[in-house]
Amino acid sequence: MPFYNSISKYDWQYLVTGFFLISVFIFTDLIGVIDKEYFYFVPRLISDQPHRIFTSILTHADLNHLLSNLGGIIITRYFLMRLEIKSRFFYLKFILICSFLNFFILWVYEKILSYFNIYPNYAALGFSGIIYAFFGFLLLTSFHGKKYFLGKEIGFKSNYEVQKMSKTICLIGLMLSFLPGVSLLGHLSGFIAGCFLFLI
């Protein structure tokens, strides 16, 4: 079946996502009217400031960080079009659910460490955890297809080309996650969350 990567009625989801990411960057980094330290994901502060679960994914360290994640949105949009998406709200619902699921995975990890009297102290930010969740979800979908997501039709079909590309991207992404300044834990927890969302 020929594929034309033209504008579709589902594109508003990606535009809204990109708009929020760019807007937050403008207010935090360019104009400086908001201190992004109030948005970071910091484990010891989550119980008192739960908003950080969501705001941390909207905040980026610098322009390169933002641009790399905007590129991730473009890639996931391409894959979703190839899988023949049939939902106007899937992308935004996935982001919202994955934000909390990703937090839960990190919480379990931290609880395991605390059992051994290890208490991680770090700050995380950026949309890449969500991008990796999409990669995990789309990788499995490219093999098996997925007709419904949380009871709503999304109409994804298996696709060998997406399968090949997503495997390559996931492998490269995993290797890049070991670079200094990159959150390996955030990427892995996102990927696991995406795979879990495929299974439910």
From TrEMBL:
Coiled coil: none
Compartment(s) of residence: Membrane
GO molecular function, one term: serine-type endopeptidase activity
Alphabetized UniProt keyword annotations: Hydrolase, Membrane, Protease, Transmembrane, Transmembrane helix
Membrane topology field: Multi-pass membrane protein
Domain of life: Bacteria
GO biological process assignments: proteolysis
A Gene Ontology cellular-component term: membrane
Main localisation: membrane
Transmembrane segments: 12-34, 90-109, 121-140, 169-199
Residues annotated as domain Peptidase S54 rhomboid: 48-198
Annotated family: Belongs to the peptidase S54 family.
Protein name as annotated: Peptidase S54 rhomboid domain-containing protein
Organism: Prochlorococcus marinus (strain MIT 9301)
